[in-house]
User: Fold these one by one.
Assistant:
Number 1:
Amino acid sequence: MEENIYDVAIIGAGPAGLTSAIYTARERLRTLVLEKVMCGGLPATTERVENYPGFPEGIGGMELMRRFKEQAERFGAEIKEFSEVKGIEQEGKIFKLTTDFGTFKSYAVIVASGSVPKKLNVPGEDKLTGRGVSYCAICDGPFYQGKDIAVIGCGNSGLQEGETLLKYVKSITFVEFLPYIPGEKILQERIIYDKRVKFLLNHIVTAINGEETVQSISVRDRESQEEKEIKVDGVFIYVGFLPNTQFLKGFVELDKEGYIITDEEMRTSRAGIYAVGDVRSKKVRQISVACGEGTVAAISVRDYLKEVRR
């Protein structure tokens, strides 16, 4: 093997990517992990993870992912943070990954680049992002001590982040597009009886209002078409995610939403490229699922490299 070529390059250091790194490094494969920001992915922005096995009392998302990283590094994985992959190309059996800090080569690639929060795409959202509009409760919740806020979206993410925000805020108005609360029942039970919480179901946000900071949101009842303005100091948005696959368009097969299509062995449409975690086309996106996929991909890579090197 050439000294400057890795056995496997893993794009993304969330649960799926780091699990893959643990397994490939333990196989004594020369493993490189490229992460565009800091290790941890979305779980690192979650205050508490309660449904990951082995932690009966729950564990902080950042702490859990710190342990993942340390375990991968213990077995020899090389992790480079703040190294976003901007492009990928193939030359024979070698893949070349381009970043702002240079080009890295490997015989196989595991894509674990995850996803980013969807925007509402309404007037005022971009203008007021960072000035009252947020997508991360653990990051920005403390700034809203004693204030009135809105949480957009009542799925699991919205309810979990809302529970975190209740530690700080005076009140939360939840706005949900559907006529019911889609989040898990156990999450609903923790907040629906709190007197500081109000739900606007079957409503849509039409604008986020304010000059220097958020002052209110405009909402519309989807059934009656009645519109009204709600005064809030902050807006936390949880309406789904978009996959980080821009650098892969035309390189591997994606579904209509941009997620990577794989088989059960995590193989993509291009030999030598695998995909795991939230970036993969599937129904369920959970940490435990991501870890399982990371394991499968690592084993698939091990077997693939045996064939490539014959």
Number 2:
Amino acid sequence: MRAEIISIGTEILLADIQDTNSRFIASRLPALGIDLYYMHQIGDNRDRLRELIESAMARSDLVMLTGGLGPTEDDVTRDAIADAFGEEAYVVPELEATLRGFFQRRGAEMPEKNIKQATVIPSGEAIPNPRGTAPGWWVERDGKIVVAMPGPPAEMTGMWDNDVALRLRERSNEEVIVSRTIKTVGVGEGTVDEMAGPLLKSANPTIGVYAKRDGVHLRLTAKAADEATAELLIHPVEQQIRELFGTSVWGIDDDTLQGSIGDLLKTNGMTIAVMESCTGGLLASTLTDVAGSSSYFMGGLVTYSEEAKQRYGVPAEVILEHSVVSEQTARAMAHAVREEMGADIGVGITGV
């Protein structure tokens, strides 16, 4: 099954909100054996959305939309889907009753514009929304499926977990897609690509190389009848990658660099302390984002001025001879904070 995701909302295009819905859906499709080919972001425009839905249905089996299911004029998702299918929406009495009951229980009268949330088209059916007033749509015709879910993440995830994922599982081909991300540091993207060159030709699992903020990642993706078989396909390739990159590999999947460093410190019974100037406490904050970091993080100092650096042990002559922003000053900061905090490892950061 080939899929596309469409996130709807002008506020997404204006960067007023982040599109977390697409990431959520994309992360859950592999376990259903569904291949995601395209992801789109589009504003609240009925005609443009209709065109996008039509083009998506022409090349994919499953089109998933989030957003635009509210009661206002710029909530155009239902209209655009109806246009794409050439069908007229009609009010479903049961949905209308449920919607009016929602408002009555809160001591309010339903605005008539909300009636659009109680509609559906002949090829579709409503998807219950356990966390809001906007039902989703499941539309199926000629072997194509269009699923519309609300934009608010809590409503979308509730609808996905309670309904949509279960329906998709029933229609999937029983295959699963399993991924493993191997994370490296200290090796450039081009070098990683060159070193892993022969492995990149693998068809199952496929391998992709991606530059990230915490290093270069290699993502292995295998498709098989079940998760165990997919893992068997991944395992030998993962071992080859680990042999190729050795100690440059610092983690996998959801591991964080600070978490892996914390694990190394605990394993070796070592402690760390930091003195920061340029970063203003960012490194200390990052290290302490990890639960249990108090067992190895002794403390941090933000010494933004020359006087503060000297107060905690950085020799004035080092700063005078080499300047505040220098390797020598950074080394002196690292040494000073290690002594001050009684840590095994000291880190000093200075810069502009």
Number 3:
Amino acid sequence: LSRVAPPIKQRTYFALVSLLVASVTLYTSCAVYLFTLESPSMKTIAVAALAAQSIFNLSRHRHSTFTAVYDTAIVAAAGLFFGLSSLVAPNQTVADQMIIIVSTLGVCSYYTIAQYRNIIVNRKLEQAQLETIQTQKMRAVGQLTAGIAHDFNNLLTVIRGNVELAELAEDDHERAALLDEAKTASSRAGKLISQLLSFSRKARLQTTVVRIDGFWRDSGSFFSSVIPATVKIEKDVDPSLESIVCDRNQLENAIMNLIVNAADAMAGVGTLRLESRPCPPALLDEAGLANASNRKFGIIAVRDTGPGIPSELLSSVTEPFFTTKAVGKGSGLGLSMVKGFTEQSGGELIIRSDGLGTSVMMVLPAEMP
């Protein structure tokens, strides 16, 4: 009854209840029968059996269901039977009879009250758990809202900066280029919902073959515009990795998250390195992709020269809402979104930090399955 998944067929439910009633009745009847025997050892076994059944029922029942009421009634009835049977035994003094009556009523009453209190306490516990879950949901909604605002703010910074530069530009071609950058950033803002779906692993990715050289050429200026000018960007592009297979827009969003995180970690001053290269076998083993249908994989990496991530936190940085930033400075969703996108694309995310910076590597398929 506790393991069957609802909804349950009525016939199955009654069959299980009948089996439960029969088994409990048979067990209790065996204890009663042993108690009626003359042997003291059999009586001891009967009392032990009833005590074991009572303890089991107290530990099992959490709801005022039929089974809880039935188990309580049959155990209490068996206890009364034991007491009455002892009461009519020969050679009983009045004092012995009083002790038996008080003990029997006391034990049966205590068990019934304990069962009732057990149900009440568990109800309160479940109510507290529901309230805790609701509180966590509201906190998660708040953090999620902050995360969306944080990512939109990054894109709005790009749009605002390019528009302000376009107002100051004297050359028409320069002004047009800046406005194109602002237009591109605004379209990326409209795709932020896809990034959130990647976080939940429910996004419908538009997987295509992304040419690496064209990707860096088209997105390089956009990546440069989302971080301070005091952060130096270097690129290390291995031409032997010609393409990767993923959703291009999601890849841009993931890299944008990583470079913003890296710039924040370096406090706006340092060197940020963007890399693309084929994935070596050792790294495939580390990512658990060595047997992925003999497909080739590539690496898109973002490395910074910041203080790094403490080793005890490395396993937690991709958890949703986990962040080491100050309140209001980060949502804790960036790396979890990147991890969701990478895994949904058929790859894996690897993060390394040795105290001299952090390397975040997206291991992605380099060819169609």
